[in-house]
Amino acid sequence: MQLHVLADNYWFPDIEQALDDPDGLLAMGGDLSCQRLVSAYRHGIFPWYNDSQPLLWWSPKIRAVISPEHVHISRSMKKWMAKCPYRITLNSQFERIIAQCAIRPHDGTWITKQMQQAYIELHHQGFAHSVEVWDDDKLVGGLYGVSVGQLFCGESMFHRATNASKLAFIQFSHHFAQHGGQLIDAQMPTTHLQSLGVVDCPRRQFKHYLRQYRDQAVDVNCWESQEL
């Protein structure tokens, strides 16, 4: 296996050619144009790098996925949601959501300024979407990601209040399922995501899901700016 260097076209190598070490590294170079990003997500690839690195493209051996109707809500979370005063919206503050996701004071961030601008443009083109959680007029949590037909590729989430990111994920999952969404890709498994029902998916199986869902449309009003 070798690391591929991307040319000026929007071609990507097959994701089975990704390196084992580091796991999933597939290619470097290219740009963050909308055409390239859309091509990447349609083939199970996402960019991940920091300011000191070249542009790197990944497709890990194990993906974290969930069918949206199977999201897990714990008993304590259900009790909390029954009393929760928060309001949840879709696609009302994309720029603020991605800026908040980029704030990682202890760990640094891979959501660079260049990355933010690229996904904001992707949002304007109708491919990237955000979920916002509000406590009155205060933004306390949310997430963003990229739609690929009936698949949603989650990129990042944040919270500034207890359970706010979990609430964003749960409410979005319900909305996505109701509008024909079939699968949510959370990229890499974490304890936080596993608590919501996200499971491991081998890369080859993920390729099958991509072929099955990427050219299938969700309901026409799924991505309209609205309250969830």
From TrEMBL:
Pfam families per record: Leu_Phe_trans
SUPFAM superfamilies attached to this UniProt entry: Acyl-CoA N-acyltransferases (Nat)
EC assignment: 2.3.2.6
Keywords from the UniProt entry: Acyltransferase, Cytoplasm, Transferase
Chief location category: cytoplasm
Swiss-Prot/TrEMBL catalytic activity: L-phenylalanyl-tRNA(Phe) + an N-terminal L-alpha-aminoacyl-[protein] = an N-terminal L-phenylalanyl-L-alpha-aminoacyl-[protein] + tRNA(Phe); N-terminal L-arginyl-[protein] + L-leucyl-tRNA(Leu) = N-terminal L-leucyl-L-arginyl-[protein] + tRNA(Leu) + H(+); N-terminal L-lysyl-[protein] + L-leucyl-tRNA(Leu) = N-terminal L-leucyl-L-lysyl-[protein] + tRNA(Leu) + H(+)
GO terms assigned for molecular function: leucyl-tRNA--protein transferase activity
Location in or out of the cell: Cytoplasm
Highest rank taxon of the organism: Bacteria
Claim: Cytoplasm is one of the keywords in the record: yes
Role noted for this protein: Functions in the N-end rule pathway of protein degradation where it conjugates Leu, Phe and, less efficiently, Met from aminoacyl-tRNAs to the N-termini of proteins containing an N-terminal arginine or lysine.
Sequence similarity: Belongs to the L/F-transferase family.
Protein name: Leucyl/phenylalanyl-tRNA--protein transferase
Source organism of this protein record: Celerinatantimonas yamalensis
Gene expressing this chain: aat
